[in-house]
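Before a computer can learn anything about folding, someone has to put a protein's shape into writing. The outcome of that step, for a single protein, is printed below:
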Amino acid sequence: MTLENQEKAPVHDGQEASGPRYTLEELKEHAESLLSVKEEVLAGAFFGAQDKLFTVAEAHTKIEQFMKAKVD
């Protein structure tokens, strides 16, 4: 699976979370162009979830939660 053929429009709240599922490595390769974040942010948001598959919408939601999390 590659992301080159996927539409690179941003995903916002209320959009459907179904669609193709990708490994974390595939998402990391396209983090900046697809999700508008650096690879390091994606790695932090998905810490501990390396063996799963995610849709672009799920990745976007997880990144938003990670960026809004409070730091003590």
Q: What stands out?
A: Residues 4-16 have pLDDT under 50 and may be disordered. The helical segments are 24-29, 31-35, 39-45, 56-68. Residues 10 and 32 are 11 Å apart (CA to CA). The beta strands are 22-23, 53-54.
